[in-house]
């Protein structure tokens, strides 16, 4: 193969890898989408979007207000905003902050300790734990309903309700 052909092949492969690595971006108001993740990271921002993510996702970040998100699996789910509702089949890491967010799903460590970090006020979490989980709960008036394997919990703040179901 000559140098030009070899260089073109390498450039094409680099472009393909770069295109695959780009996160899916959803920014807007009242968007409604049904999207396969294909292993990619996903960023959702704005207000009142309804997003359904299917398949395996990388890191899913949800910012803003009043979103409704459903997803299959994710390596991590990060929620920051207000009145965001997320339902997930399973995540390996969960971070929730700000106020009044609702999360339902399984936290699965796949042989490692899964991490859950909750900060802020008046969040409602219904979680099932599969394997070792470390939870840090800070803030005011958060509700954690959990089932499955018993997690290690560290908490500070006022008015938290932690209930095994």
TrEMBL record:
Q: Which InterPro entries match?
A: DUF3060 (IPR021417)
Keywords from UniProt, A to Z, are: Signal
Leader sequence residues: 1-21
Q: Which domain of life is it from?
A: Bacteria
| Annotated protein name in UniProt | DUF3060 domain-containing protein
């Amino acid at each position: 193969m000559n140098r030009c052909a070899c260089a073109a092949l390498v450039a094409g492969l680099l472009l393909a890898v770069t295109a695959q690595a780009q996160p899916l971006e959803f920014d807007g108001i009242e968007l409604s989408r049904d999207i396969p993740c294909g292993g990619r990271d996903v960023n959702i921002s704005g207000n009142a979007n309804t997003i359904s993510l299917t398949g395996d996702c990388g890191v899913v970040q949800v910012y803003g207000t009043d979103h409704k998100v459903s997803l299959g699996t994710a390596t991590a789910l990060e929620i920051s905003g207000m009145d965001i509702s997320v339902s997930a089949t399973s995540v390996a890491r969960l971070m929730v902050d700000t106020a009044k967010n609702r999360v339902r799903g399984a936290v699965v460590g796949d042989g490692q300790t899964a991490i859950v970090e909750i900060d802020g006020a008046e969040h409602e979490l219904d979680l099932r734990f599969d394997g070792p989980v470390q939870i840090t709960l800070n803030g005011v008036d958060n509700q954690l309903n959990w089932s499955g394997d018993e997690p290690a919990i560290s908490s500070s703040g006022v008015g938290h309700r932690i209930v095994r179901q």
